[in-house]
Amino acid sequence: MLIATMSTSMDEAATAAEVDHALARASAQGDTGAFEALYRRHAGRVHGVILRLVGHQHSRAEDLTQEAFVRAWQALPGFRFESAVGTWLHRLAANTALMELRSRRSGPAMDGREDALEEIGSGDTAGQRTALSMDLQQAVDSLPPRARAVLVLYDIEGWTHEEIANGLDMAVGSSKAQLHRARRLLRTRLGDST
Known about the structure:
mainly alpha, Rna Polymerase Sigma Factor, Chain: A, 194 residues, 2 domains, Arc Repressor Mutant, subunit A
């Protein structure tokens, strides 16, 4: 029974990849209906990664999801089918969000916002520790943008430090340091003193 189930799952995965490749080929030739189908098949996952990268700012994630699919439509004629279409779309979505994070980082608003986020979980005006009751997602969302991006890409999306460094335009050592910082901040914000 287990082997039959695994075989069925493998067949479904192969079929899904074949469908994606057929839709991508048709889309690359200008078939908007095929691209619509590709969008419906992958919009949830693409939106999910972007939403995590932008700290669950829903309207921002919606805009970036649309931008990622516009970029996908433009880039499909050059897609070489060396990877799964879903993997390619997922990577393109992450890169779209990362480019937006980089552009915000270069502006003055990002510096002030990151400083404000650092104060979450620190002593309040009375000198006592602020009592935080937030779940893991809220804690991740409250991380400084670069630390959050590295954490999401490394721990959730499975990117390597080299890929993150390239995507965020930073040194590999900086990626590792940001991951360490993000994990430390999460432990602090979730009340783990170890």
